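Batch manifest, entry 17 of 40.
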Amino acid sequence: MKKNCNILIFTILLVGTFLCSHAASTATTTKKPSASARVSTNSAEKSVVVTVSVALKVFLQGAIDSTKNIASMTNYLQAPNNPNISALLPVNNPYAAYPGYGDVQGRYTQINNVSGPAKEVTDWVLVEIWGNVNTSAFPYTYDLVERRAFLLKPNGSVVDTNGLAPQFAPYAQSDVRVVVSHRNHMGVISNNQFAFNAGAVVEYDFTTGPDKAFGSGIQGVPEPMVKSTYTKGAACLWAGDLNFDGNINPSDWGLFNPTLLPISGTYSISDISLDGLINADDYNFIYPNYVKSIYSLLTYFKKSN
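Output type: structure tokens
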């Protein structure tokens, strides 16, 4: 009888040990995943956004560096050539302060540092992506897809604050055009249309000739860009559109107000040569263009969306 009792006790202990071990094993398999496992799971859930790279090149008539043998612009607003003037480029892009442009993003804390990621900078420019462009009848129409402010370098390249080509979201339509504007030069829209597919690389050089901008060669319409011996043969945005409306007319001349000459150390729309000074150099840019009544066909476009 005592032998049977010992067998029974041993059996109970064995079963109990098995049940405890099984319970512990079950608890282990249902615990929360480790930190590394959670990161891996989250990473797998993230969607990869494939953008469109847009490499642009554009020159400003007023900022052309007359000391160079090839077309290039100065960066005197960033690194003044006048010892009495400090760096003047604003950290926040100027276009966000314009009526109707409050959504424009663009901020670069190192804009006056030639050693920053973007290196040498001439000024801020506004880049817009237009889709569904229709030029078959007046008024021309378009959909505004995206717009942001970027940095214009002396060699004409338009870059983001990291010094690289701007990245934009893909767009389903194939009739996409690029618009580049500046705070005191007349803006342009590309003569070419682009496919804005994910992963695409768009390269467009406005400086090779006025025909790179829409409106070139149309009888009775001013060429959309200026090209002369002063600009070293490169096509540039016309200087003098101070009110940002696509015309160089009495309104701009009134804003320039030559009776205020000279003024120094200012980031102003009247500083057309972009050197921190308002003087005869700026007069010599705006007056001839004002007399010619230069205007852009951009004034005939109407936003649909």
